[in-house]
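Kindly inspect the following:
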Amino acid sequence: MTARSSLAAPLHPVRNERLGIALRVLSTLAFAMMGVCVKALGDAVPLGQVVFFRSAVALLPLIAFLWWRGEWPRGLATSRPMGHVGRCLMGAVAMFTSFATIRLLPLAEATMLAYLAPVMLALLGWALLGERPSAGRIGGVVLGLAGAAAFCLPAFAGALPDTGALGVVLGLVTAALTAGALIQVRRLTLLGEGAGAIAFWFAVVSALIGLATLPWGWVWPGPATLLLLIGTGLAGGIAHILMTLSFSHADASALAPFEYLSVLWAVALGFAFFAELPGLAFLLAGPLILTGAFIARPAKPKCPPARAVDASSERL
């Protein structure tokens, strides 16, 4: 069996939808906990150092998972190195802007802005790949853009502090960069690149880019800071694996609604750890963005495990 075909093969002959949903819910919680760790670090740790730990530490569970699936190291082979470079650069920059957004905005708002990525992906798919969006997806794009406008109006009207306005701008940049990275993931997948290779090389390149910021002044972390840095990487890596495993047990259509629990986790954890309450912009824009993202999201082929690994490489 080839590395590519093994990605498409179910890990378990018996599917268990309830287990798949439970794994998907846990993956959204793990992603939210990653955001908590990033926000708790605050400005005390340079962004490049956070990106390094997020990517380097996440390699540990990823390598273990690929080894468990029998795809280490043969599943890392690639015939499109330059394609990976483009995807990795966009994704790595998006990681920087995403973490900066989490620092500047309440956790719920930062998480909500990330859901503009499917809306922008639909626009880029039409502009760059010649895709023909359905009427439903066009409606989803319109709703998402309306939600983005609702988010931006308080910032541009001066109703938010300068840091809040900058956070909104960086959140929009993150969504655009993430959509661009997803376009490249699609291209690589269509060209036959293994999903394990896409995820692995993204983590490696992001870690190297984070490490390259060392001359600009990293800090020596104390015990609490080091735990938060390690927690950022472990939470992100484990979230990817849980998401991948969830698609081994349930169809994408059954799991899709649970992806949006990330927003609820962000609201709850933001209040529990940072005493944050969602603002008016969140309440106005949230329903529009979530509805638009749900409608505009890419259709999932009926090849759950393969797409799940692809999807895991799409999250920061």
